[in-house]
Amino acid sequence: MNIAIITGSHGLIGSESVTYFSEKMDLIIGIDNDQRAYFFGKEASTLWNKTVLEEKFNNYKHYNEDIRDFNSLEKIFKEYQKDIKLIIHTAAQPSHDWAAKEPITDFTINANGTLNLLELTRQNCPEAVFIFTSTNKVYGDTPNELPLIELDKRWEIATTHTYYKDGIDEFMSIDQSKHSVFGASKVAADVMVQEYGKYFNMKTAVFRGGCLTGPNHSGAQLHGFLSYLMKCSISNTHYTIFGYKGKQVRDNIHAWDLVNMFWHFYNNPKNGEVYNAGGGRFSNCSMIEAIEICEHITGNKMNYSYLDDNRSGDHIWYISDVNKFKKHYPNWEYKYNLTDTMTQMFEKMKSI
Known about the structure:
Layout: E1 3-7, H1 12-21, E2 27-31, H2 35-40, H3 47-56, E3 60-63, H4 70-80, E4 84-89, H5 96-99, H6 103-124, E5 129-135, E6 148-150, E7 155-157, H7 181-199, E8 203-209, E9 211-213, H8 225-235, E10 239-242, E11 249-254, H9 255-267, E12 273-277, E13 284-286, H10 287-298, E14 304-307, E15 317-318, H11 323-328, H12 338-351
Helix pairs in contact: 1-9, 4-6, 6-7, 8-10, 8-12, 10-12
């Protein structure tokens, strides 16, 4: 029997992983205790997705456990240890704004929770593939030191700086920068996943995501900006842009495209590998451009205002260079562009 354990299984990437791998594995073990509702309020709860997954997939089994609880996790790993082939770890406290309110909660979830899963994998199923969803926030605010130029609707890398023409690669330093409390806790987890791969010769991979998005995102003001932006556009809810003239740039990768990266890695795993995983040059936008797309799709004029104060440690321009992953897995390619993704969001929200 082939079993996959997926943490954060109600969330955007977790539920996409359940959907994707349900046809490829005999059993999917989902672990999720809806901490998102605690972080961002009832409107961000993912409990609705639990019901969807249980009704849709007969081979999905859910556990309402906290990844900080080693003993509870251990019972799951010991019950299925002989058949566990894959762990996809997506559970996290995902907001750098929220992390500053409760640093201990943030760190114990992001860092200690990841260590729990790594050690249980090593003890019970060391040959399994371990995939971790990290973040571009591990680079801190170092990307802001790049030579950027201001265009009409966005910031861009200077044309004279050709090294970063395809985006930011895995060689950028994660040291000597302001990460946010969230970024620091994810650095700790990120490095431990690498270390278990390299020190214990385990099949581990770190995927440093750009903006992860898709129609199943329960977007909130502090996390999931494209989803929340579309929600505001549909409902005429006020939206606030923080700093950088609204020209800050993010790349956006559809959840399916990211999980498809996981599949390619699972079929040809490596030890302690790191990949930047975002929309790259294929799918990116500034805040101003994202608002214009929302207005075009919804037909509504966006209700928003601008504050000159940017979020602490926030990126001015971030586009992922995915060339390393493409070199390792040349058959992987993007499926959904930015307009596809935002149209899917609109249709999903209107149908609810």
